[in-house]
Amino acid sequence: MNKWKIPGLVILSTILLSACSVNSDADKLYKQPKPLSAHVMLPERIEPQSIRVVEVHVMQENKTVDDAESVQFKVWKKDDPAKVQIAKAHYNGGMYTAKATFKDDGVYYIKTDINARGEHILPTQQVAVGKLSKEDLRSLQPAKNETHNHHSHH
Amino acid sequence: MMQEKREETTSTNKKITTRSQSLYKAIWRWHFYAGLLFTPFLLILAVTGGMYLFKPQIEERLYHDLYHVQAQSQSVSPSAQVQAVKENYPSADVLTYKPSDRSTRSSEVGISLKDRTYTIFVNPQNGHIVGKLDDSSRLMNQIEEFHGELMAGTAGDRIVELAACWAIVLIVTGAFLWWPRKKDKIKGVLIPRFSKGKNVLARDLHVVPAFWISAGMLFLVLTGLPWSGLWGNAFQQIATNAGVGYPPSIWVGSAPTSTVQTKDVAVVPWGAETLEIPNSTAQQYTKVSLDDIVTIAKEQHIHDGYTISIPQEPQGVYTLSVFSPKAQDETTIHLDQYTGAVLADYRYDNYGFMGKLIALGITLHKGTQFGFINQLIGLIICIGIAGIVISGALLWWKRKPAKNMGAPKVPEGNAMRIVTCIIVVFGLVFPLVGLSLIIVWLLDFFVIKRIPVLQRFLNA
Fold this sequence. Notes:
Chain A is of the alpha+beta class and 154 residues long. Chain A is built from 3 helices and 10 strands. Chain B is an alpha+beta fold and 460 residues long. In chain B, β7 (317-322) and β8 form a beta hairpin. Chains A and B meet through α1, β1, β9, β10 and α3 of A and α8, β5, α9, β9 and α12 of B.
């Protein structure tokens, strides 16, 4: 029996070594980022030929950020990406707000460009203004196109 | 009385000599069989490694027409470049984008198409496609695969790891055999003896270069082991978990995830009530554009030659990574795909001390850390290893008796047991070595011991 002690130990250690995996909170042991997050508030409905208020609540580590270096909304129409409307936002005691003009019916992009505390984020949203053409509607379904190559991971 | 004492000393001396002789034999036996068994693999590693060292120069020559484009004043945005690739290969998934780092260099778009991956080279000045490369057919990828896994997948990887581990056994036992037994002896130890006949010269041409090359060889083995599949993976996991290795996601562990922001704050922005709302789960936020990701990369001062991995799933992240020639310039940055927020920023300085050592080991092993000199030293070690392996095999072939392997006899006494014990401990640290020992034992116990011819042949 004694003879099998060492080989047994070897097998055991092999299994132990191959069974371990990286702890899910191992990243806490290394440099931790302080990412910004933003909640962009857009009007429920946007009619063409209107000027609307757009707002963003900026946060870092679950606390409101009130000292951003710059916050601006960049707005352009999907079929005219070269014409970008830039609306600088100001802090109103809770959120950064600005006004943007929406001229025509169609899909618009609103990019909220935030620089604060050395971090830079630029969440981008699509919004529909007025009535949409069938083509526009179809293009608003990126989710379907994007997930066709969804691979399963274990 | 005096007489008695002297006799005692002689007999102890004799005992010590026989003991050291049997120890020598025991170690020789291990060196002999390990060498014989792993000769072909070590030779393969040395030859493929010596070629792979010069990857930058070789690829520059092979793919000159794909790499270089005419410098022009205008340029096309990264997203337009990727769009051009998408139009050419509509059914492909775009996985990576590597921006051009100077005006005469093409940019690279990595795509997957029917389970194969290709690199599409794009002229960043006009968005034209320069050419396409099947990644698996690249010569250097094949050499790397040969070097890392003998082109035999996981099984090959394990064999390479085993050969690397046994190379350590060979170096250590070899150093013991080489160790000068007489003082002030240089000939046959540090320089070969040319005038003492063929047999002595053959021995010296194995032993002396082996001494000179062994430190380099040990270095290559130790720096190569952390990327092996079994031991390396476990080692990396332990180091990462302990906070001393690579941060997670660089070698082992997973990357952070993007926060999928649904319409929790703002109400559905789609204004057209008369028309059907496209998809109730449609994400409110769209992917940050590749152009903005390139801007962020510039803001982060990431080293030239970085690659952007494009998220393929809703929770995925954009990953900027560069494994530059010098370990100190390495960077891995994960960005939230909906906001561009930096979720993790791991540079060389953020690695644990073991991670730094591994990273430096890798760039030294690959010959990139110190440029051409580094490549040259690597090449010399590779040629040296090939030379030692071949001269060792020749040494055995010349001395080999006709009827058996010519292995040193199993010595009597404790010597063999001591050596075996040391190797077993080694087998615990490197489980694959342990596993191979078990197999040898089983083979010995069930096959060799029962077949006298085999037993005689192997001198067992």
